[in-house]
């Protein structure tokens, strides 16, 4: 078999499980992508909402953002954070 065959399996093979499909094709809607680092890498028991970098931007709605990522902010949910997410390694009191 060539390398290309291994990278792109044929469609006559076994069907993908739902978990494999979600991994390959994640839903972009509803996922917050505005974190400065991976959530959960910060102090235990802290959340994004308790961080000094947490900002609430008021456009047509309120959007929770990370101030460290302000260069990448959009006017919508694409660069939001979740207030209840575990703190990242950039967390500050």
Q: Tell me the span between the first and last alpha carbons.
A: 55 Å
How many alpha or pi helices? Answer: 2
Number of domains: 1
Element order: H for helix, E for strand: HHEE
Helix coverage percent = 10-25%
Major beta sheet, strand line-up: 1-2
Mean pLDDT: 80
- Describe the global form: globular
How many E strands? 2
Going by helix content, strand content and strand pairing, the class is little secondary structure
Describe this structure in words.
The chain is low in regular secondary structure and 93 residues long. It has one domain. It is 13% helix and 11% strand. A two-stranded antiparallel sheet has the order 1-2. It is globular and about 50 Å long. The mean pLDDT is 80.
Key descriptive features of the protein:
globular, 93 residues, little secondary structure, 2 strands
């Amino acid at each position: 078999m060539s390398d290309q065959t291994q990278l792109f399996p044929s469609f006559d093979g076994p069907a993908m499980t739902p978990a494999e499909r979600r991994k390959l094709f994640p839903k972009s809607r509803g996922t917050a992508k505005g974190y400065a680092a991976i959530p959960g890498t910060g102090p235990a028991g802290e959340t994004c909402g308790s961080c000094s970098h947490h900002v609430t931007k008021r456009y047509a709605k309120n959007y929770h953002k990370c101030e460290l990522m302000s260069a990448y902010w959009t006017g919508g949910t694409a660069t939001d954070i979740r207030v209840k997410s575990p703190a990242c390694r950039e967390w500050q009191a």
